[in-house]
C-alpha cells in the first residue's frame, strides 16, 4: 500500500492508496486454442466478432492494421493510447477511416467526414485530460473508396485512398473534424505502396511554431 501525506480531512494523517494493478503483456493466440468447457476455438470467436470487415468498427481496425503494416509495426497500441501507431522512429500516427458504403441499407452513399482529430486523452491512474488536444505527429485519413457493393472488396488495398497530413496542417486548421472535400485539398491520396514514404515525409515537415 502507498501512503500519501496531506490527503483527506484537514490535511492531517496519511491516505492509503491501493497498489497499482499492472497487467502482463498479452499472450497473442494463434487461433487454434480451444476454449475450456466449450466446443470452440479462438478462430470461431474471431469469425463471430470480425466476420464483416465492412462494419464501421472493424473498418477502423482494418485501416489501423493496414497503416501499421505499411510502417513495419506488428503490435497494436493499447486501446486507451492517444495515438494509434508508433513507428520504429518514434513517430506518433493517428489513423481515421471512412467509406461511401456501409454494411446496412442506405438511402444514399455516406457523406465522408473524418472526426476525432482533436480529443481528450486518457492515461492510467491520472485519468482523462481536461482539454481536447491534437496528439499525433501525422494523421492518416483512410477512405475505402468503392462506390458499388458488387465491387467492394475489403481485402483489396487498391480500393483505399490514404491521405497523409502533417501535424502543422492539422493543428493549423484547428478543427476536430474534416470533410472529404477539404481533406482532398490538403493532401492528395497516395496508394498503399507509397504510404510509408508519405508518413515519413509528413513527419519530417515538423510542427507548427
Label this structure with key terms:
5 helices, alpha+beta, globular, four-stranded mixed sheet, 209 residues, two-stranded antiparallel sheet, 10 strands, disordered N terminus
What would you note in describing this structure?
The structure is a single chain. The protein is 22% helix and 19% strand. It is of the alpha+beta class. The strands form 4 sheets. A 4-stranded mixed β-sheet has the order 3-4-8-9, with helices on both faces. Strands 1-2 form a two-stranded antiparallel ribbon. A hairpin with a 5-residue loop joins strand 3 (85-86) and strand 4 (92-99). The longest helix has 15 residues, at 56-70.
Helix and strand layout, with pairings?
Layout: E1 2-5, E2 14-17, H1 42-49, H2 56-70, E3 85-86, E4 92-99, E5 113-114, E6 122-123, E7 127-128, E8 138-144, E9 160-166, H3 167-173, E10 178-179, H4 180-186, H5 195-204
Parallel strand pairs: 4-8
Antiparallel strand pairs: 1-2, 3-4, 5-10, 6-7, 8-9
- Let me know the average pLDDT: 88
Q: Level of helix content? A: 10-25%
What is the element string, with H for helices and E for strands?
A: EEHHEEEEEEEHEHH
Q: Biggest β-sheet, characterized?
A: 4 strands, mixed
Strand order of the largest sheet: 3-4-8-9
Number of β-strand runs = 10
Oligomer: single chain
Strand content: 15-25%
Cα separation of the termini: 44 Å
Radius of gyration: 21 Å
Derived from helix and strand composition plus strand pairing, the structural class reads alpha+beta
Shape: globular
Helix count equals: 5
Low-confidence spans: 3-7
Amino acid at each position: 500500500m502507498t501512503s500519501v501525506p496531506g490527503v483527506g480531512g484537514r490535511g492531517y494523517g496519511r491516505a492509503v492508496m491501493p497498489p497499482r494493478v499492472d497487467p502482463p503483456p498479452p499472450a497473442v493466440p494463434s487461433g487454434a486454442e480451444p476454449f475450456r468447457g466449450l466446443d470452440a476455438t479462438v478462430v470461431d470467436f474471431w469469425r463471430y466478432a470480425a466476420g464483416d470487415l465492412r462494419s464501421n468498427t472493424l473498418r477502423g481496425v482494418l485501416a489501423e492494421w493496414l497503416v501499421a503494416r505499411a510502417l513495419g509495426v506488428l503490435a497494436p497500441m493499447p486501446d486507451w493510447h492517444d495515438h494509434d501507431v508508433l513507428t520504429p522512429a518514434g513517430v506518433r500516427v493517428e489513423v481515421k477511416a471512412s467509406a461511401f458504403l456501409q454494411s446496412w441499407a442506405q438511402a444514399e452513399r455516406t457523406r465522408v467526414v473524418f472526426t476525432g482529430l482533436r480529443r481528450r486523452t486518457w492515461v492510467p491512474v491520472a485519468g482523462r485530460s481536461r482539454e481536447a488536444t491534437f496528439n499525433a505527429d501525422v494523421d492518416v485519413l483512410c477512405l475505402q473508396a468503392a462506390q458499388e457493393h458488387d465491387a467492394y472488396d475489403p481485402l483489396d488495398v487498391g480500393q483505399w485512398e490514404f491521405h497523409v497530413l502533417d501535424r502543422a496542417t492539422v493543428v493549423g486548421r484547428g478543427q476536430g473534424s474534416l470533410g472529404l472535400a477539404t481533406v482532398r485539398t490538403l493532401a492528395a491520396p497516395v496508394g498503399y505502396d507509397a504510404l510509408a514514404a508519405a508518413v515519413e515525409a509528413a513527419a519530417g515537415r515538423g510542427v507548427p511554431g
